[in-house]
Amino acid sequence: MIVPGVLWTLIVFSIATWAILLIKGLQFARNRVENKRFQKVFWEAKSMEEGESISEKRPGTMASIARAGFAVVTGRDIAPKNQALAQKINRSDRLERSLRQQIQRERRSLEGGLAILASIGSTSPFIGLFGTVWGIMEALITIGETGEAGLDTVAGPIGHALIATGVGIAAAVPAVLVYNYFTRRLKLTVSLMDDFAHDFYSLAQQHAFQSQAPRPVAQEVSSPSPAMG
Asked: How would DSSP label each residue in 9-28?
């Protein structure tokens, strides 16, 4: 029962690998399209208020980062009872921390399933080898008990046991390739999110970290008084 159990375990691993490939592929593709559409509309906004409205309506990781940034810019990130304490923290520092934390949240969401691929890729060959060793051991025990050591008696059980190693390698190779592919896609996505967060920070800095740009203070120029006649 050991060798069939190993084979079925490897088959389940292989099915899981292809399922994760499909799910993560759709997730990354959808996120890429959403981010492109969001950035195109967001950077065409004429004001911070319009940009905030766009980010509230759009899906995607970059829209989530923008929402986290606008929460700090508008002061919604602080509960009313903590307003006095929060004012001691520079708003630019709060914005930088909020953007960084949101990027980490989005990264953890995109990383879902990659640990499973890494585990499958690293353990499948050993599981297959375990099945092979167990099958060969059973074959040798049977040969010792029966005393029959002919080629027809040995080749069948040992050949059946070697299938486990082959299936283990067949399950591990796609898992490693898929893991490496999505790891590269994840690094690229995180890099794009970092770039967007940096641009958002610069935009907020231009508006003095407020939802509305500060109005310039008009300088009063005193006109000379007319001469008294």
From this structure: HHHHHHHHHHHHHHHHHHHH
DSSP conformational letter for 207: T
Q: Which two tokens stand for residue 86?
A: 């929060």
Count of beta carbons in the 10 Å neighbourhood of residue 73: 25
pLDDT digits (tens, 9 = 90+) for 54-82: 888 888 888 898 888 888 777 776 665 65
Output the six-digit token pair for 179: 């893991």
Closest C-alpha to 97, from 113, 109, 86, 111: 86
The span from the CA of 218 to the CA of 196, in Å, is 34
SS3 state at 87: coil
Nearest to 152 by CA among 134, 170, 138, 139: 139
Q: What pLDDT digit, counting tens, does each position of 142-157 carry?
A: 777 766 666 666 666 6
- Cβ neighbours for 133, distance < 8 A, ≥ 6 positions apart: 161
SS3 111: helix
Rounded Cα gap, residues 200 and 208, in angstroms = 12
DSSP H helices in the chain: 2-42, 48-57, 61-73, 83-86, 91-111, 114-146, 151-206
Q: Is the pTM of this model over 0.85?
A: no
